[in-house]
Amino acid sequence: xxxxxxxxxxxxxxxxDSAARFSSMxxxxxxxxxxxxIMNIPGMxxxxxxxxxxxxxxxxxxxxxxxxxxxxxxxxxxxxTIFSLLFGAGLILFMDRLSERLPGNQAADLYMKRxxxxxxxxxxxxxxxxxxxxxxxxxxxxxxxxxxxxxxxxKTFIILIIGLMAIVGYSNYTKYANHVExxxxxxxxxxxxxxxxxxxxxxxKHVENWDRAFNQSHPKPxxxxxxxxxxxxxxxxxxxxxxGRMQMxxxxxxxxxxxxxxxxxxxxxxxLYRWGVLTLQVPHKVYLAMIVVGYGIGLPLRYILSIxxxxxxxxxxxxxMYRLLLDPGRILVGGAHIGLIMLFCQSxxxxxxxxxxxxxxxxxxxxxxxxxxVAIFVFTGxxxxxxxxxxxxxxxxxxxxxxVFQLITSPIWLKYFRFGPFEWLWRSMTYGxxxxxxxx
Length: 440
Prior knowledge:
- The two termini are 26 Å apart.
- The protein contains 17 helices and no strands.
- The chain is an all-alpha fold.
């Protein structure tokens, strides 16, 4: 890379000195990573429709329903929010530190290259590691936009956050209103049909449109059979059968949802970083207030909406109402999670666990991608072919095993090596030179 050789690339690409790291951010990142796996593992081990609707597959009574309810209230979107905002804060921190060490535009060049590579890793993660919920692709794209905003005042970020939330809220309301109207028109048509009258062409379309919307979360059993058979097949069969779905996820869904979600949360992360919330620079009473307000308002709100989904038999309209209030709910509960994590960091208790979680957070890219690699061997025909074979609650035995394994191995790995394996690859590609891996 032009100009980098004169500045000792290996030294520039070295990990941040332990004394200069914010361990609170590493700990929060490690916890959020495990929280993301809580959300992801149903999508890894069960048919797609079962992610939101336990009636579709995986068990909808007893412990399985309680697991779905608990996850939906405490973790749905909140852990992704925390992980995303930490990524946004980390981008600003990365750029600030790099700008102090490099002249001219070299810091900007490395920032852009680093995040373009992240887009590439996201595509590999989706298409070859078979994870449809990849966030790296969206993170890399959103990071390119955040670069141009890095000098914005905090007040400007807050205005943009509120504006983007309003746009997302309006979009969700439009979808909710459309589904309500669609349902009402279909109901009128069904009542007319039940009376023995013949339906008009428009009325037939109303019924078909609502059936189509309803069946997205309530697919036919034959669709599950095909999805399970495909996933339980060999690796290349998975890659080819998965290709069309990944095209949709890393195009339509990214540009209508994931990208904006990532950018919104990254901007929140920049604000919280500047305020010192993520770096333990505010009094503990601030974290207590975040916990009381966040859990006091957010948890009851999400619980009521989740119960409404269950009582509606997982009707799309109930899901729409949940999504309509998703941002306020997840920011409140996510903020409370952050407050609790920061108090945990301030307390100094369970230092061994804090160290282990920080190590997991420092190896976040490796550990995140490892989740999908493990899933290939556990759920597809490459290994145990358990896709669709386990109840929802049984998936969390696998989740617990992965968490324990990474809590043990991450500190051991970082005792001897400077980076996680994928962090090493990412840095080496960014700086255009193989980085020194082993600690001296």
